[in-house]
Amino acid sequence: MSQPAGERSFPLPSQIADVPGAEGWEALYPYFTRFQPEDDQRFWFYNSMHFPEVVPAFDGITSEIPYTAIGANTARLFAFPTTMGIEYRILNGRVYITANPVLDEAKQAERLAHFQERAGYYYANWDRLYEGWQQRIEALIAEIEAVEVPQLDELDDLEVVTGSRGYATNHLVRENFHRCIDLYSKMWHHHTEFLMLGYGAYVVFFGFCRQAFPEIGDQAVARMVAGMDVTMYRPDDELKKLAALAVELDLADLFVEGNEPAKVLSAVGERGDAGERWLAALEEAKDPWFNVSVGDGFYHHHLSWADDLTVPFAALPRYVEQIRAGEDLTRPTERLAAERERIAEEYRALLGGDDERAAFDQMLGLCRQVFPYIESHKFYCEHWFTTRFFQKIRAFGRLLADRGVLAEAEDVFHLRHVEAEDALVDVMLAWASGGTELGARHWQPIVAERKRIVEALAGWSPPPALGPVPEALNDPAVQMLWGVTDETVQTWLGGDELEENVVRGYAAAPGVVEGTARVLSNVNEIGQIREGEILVCPVTAPSWGPVFGKIAAAVSDIGGTMSHAAIVAREYGMPAVVGTGQATARIKTGDRLHVDGDRGIVTILG
Questions:
Q1: Could you tell me if 470 and 1 are in contact, meaning their C-beta atoms sit under 8 angstroms apart?
Q2: Are strands 534-537 and 553-556 parallel, antiparallel or unpaired?
């Protein structure tokens, strides 16, 4: 992003007042997350893609650690020529970010030389290095799964003495808690190791196409790499297998929309051998494929399917019905693959010479090679690992609750991770001394106050951006992932008169449909979606795949052509318009909509 022009501006951070009833909210987050006076001179936008809700105190780690890793990989390891990392601040519980550009041309040239050497090594050895990544991330998951919350009994086990271990069990309370935090940090470094390079390859190809074909749309570029088989869709595929098995075993009548998972499981268990076979298949699918969060892995309360079966069991009745009717539930991967070849060949034929065609082939080939990582990593990182991480932290919360420091295990998420360590040390000391933990009178009033603050902050409508608008929003990653462009900003500012019944955004996935809107403010409302409705939401996650089988189209407030909502919609062959900035504000549940995924236009029919 270039330097601000200073003429157009969103509210300055210093001008935003505290939310009534939430005074003192700053104590939930570290000092380095607070806006500074000089931040008024910079442009920030609300990262509602990853943080669509108020961030509880512990969950602040899900911005602190990822931005530490993303910036390190982008700025210090691979030396991207035109950008450093992302800075973030928290305001009234919401995460705002800005990308730090490299504007000096000499510095860009210097960094480019490093980038070509370092990134070039990864691109040239992608498959071998990716295989190593796969092994490392699976080892990290095994490590987090192996972390134990120590049991502090009256006496340590005799084996601690006879084995001459050399330390009592209370030592492991802090060590194992640290282990969880350290592994989460390492996971995010692994997470971004390939991700930014994947985006980088796409950015270069995107820029080439824009220059070579000035009239090309973002979606046409994206469709040249669509139709890839990626791990993130495996949980949904497992659900379809379970639905098919239910039909095969004559259990289909038990899967009725609206039935609670516990009742369905109980009824299945009463069906003898057939029921036992289905339940065994469910257990096999759950590990690891149900370790997928209903959100995007940034909030402790966005539980996984394994923790809460509501989402998968909401999808099963429809899948069962479709299989009984003989419908094909596979994603249209072959059609998308044929389409990507057709589009690529049409544009390739427009190029003037052999050199241009060779460059086109090389860049497109690299994009297709790196693209699967862009989606597949999410299952291992944001979902499987992070599900386990939050489960372990919840178990430490249970220790604190059992020892009387907290009223209940979930209260640990209203402490910052450094505060949770203090509370655990209180337990370690009391067990060692034979005394009593002192944390109840200290932490329980703080937790109660923070719960009240989070509730008050939830009612605040955060501005989409803060500070002066730059002369040009030219960071391609910000554009493709978040959908933040000059046009988006103009809409946010309200400079253009809004068309009464039209909402505009990115043409993310092709197709035109009409249907009834279902507006969801957060992922916890996902069970409200009914067959054939048009989903309107702030942002979607890839884990919503089962719901994509029910809806006619998707419309989101935020997201660009390479956002996960856009990618998933294309893979499911469903129209989508993303990055509207205002869909959830202007559309109401029950509105009749006309969604044009080819042009990025949503018309409210009434």
A1: yes
A2: parallel
Tell me how far apart the alpha carbons of residues 21 and 46 are, in angstroms, rounded to a whole number.
Answer: 22
Q: Output the DSSP codes for 223-234.
A: HTT-----GGGH
Q: How far apart are CA 92 and CA 466, in angstroms?
A: 13
pTM: 0.89
pLDDT in tens, 123-181: 999 999 999 999 999 999 999 999 999 999 999 999 999 999 999 999 999 999 999 99
The DSSP letter of residue 38 is G
Q: Which long-range contacts (CB under 8 A, 24 or more apart) does 594-597 make?
A: 594/512, 594/513, 594/514, 595/512, 595/513, 595/514, 595/515, 595/534, 595/552, 595/553, 595/555, 596/507, 596/512, 597/507, 597/508, 597/509, 597/510, 597/511, 597/512, 597/553, 597/569
The answer to whether residues 325 and 332 touch, using CB atoms and an 8 Å cutoff, is no
Half-sphere exposure of 431 (CA within 13 A, CB side): 25
Helix (H) or strand (E) holding 578: strand 576-578
pLDDT tens-place string over residues 44-86: 999 988 898 999 999 999 999 999 999 999 999 999 998 888 9
Count Cα atoms within 13 angstroms, Cβ side, for 302.
Answer: 29
Q: Which residue has the higher pLDDT, 259 or 271?
A: 271
Average the pLDDT over 265-283 and give the result. 95
Do residues 481 and 523 make contact, with C-beta atoms less than 8 angstroms apart?
no
CATH 3.50.30.10-classified regions of the chain: 499-604
In this prediction, residue 498 carries a pLDDT of 60
Question: Rounded to whole angstroms, how far apart are CA atoms 534 and 540?
Answer: 13
For residue 428, what are the contacts with CB-CB under 8 A and spacing of at least 6?
A: 170, 171, 173, 174
Sheet of 512-519, strand order: 502-504, 601-604, 592-596, 512-519, 534-537, 553-556, 576-578, 506-509
The fold of the 499-604 domain, in CATH, is Glucose Oxidase; domain 1 (3.50.30)
- The 8-class DSSP code of residue 78 comes to S
> What would the mean pLDDT of 413-431 be, rounded to a whole number?
97
Of all helices (H) and strands (E), which one includes residue 577?
Answer: strand 576-578
Q: Is 381 a residue whose pLDDT tops 60?
A: yes
* Statement: residue 569 has pLDDT above 90: no
pLDDT of residue 3: 41
Cα torsion 337, 213, 124, 122: sign: negative
410-419 burial, b for 16+ CB within 10 Å, e for fewer? bbbbbbbbeb
How does strand 94-101 pair with strand 83-91? antiparallel
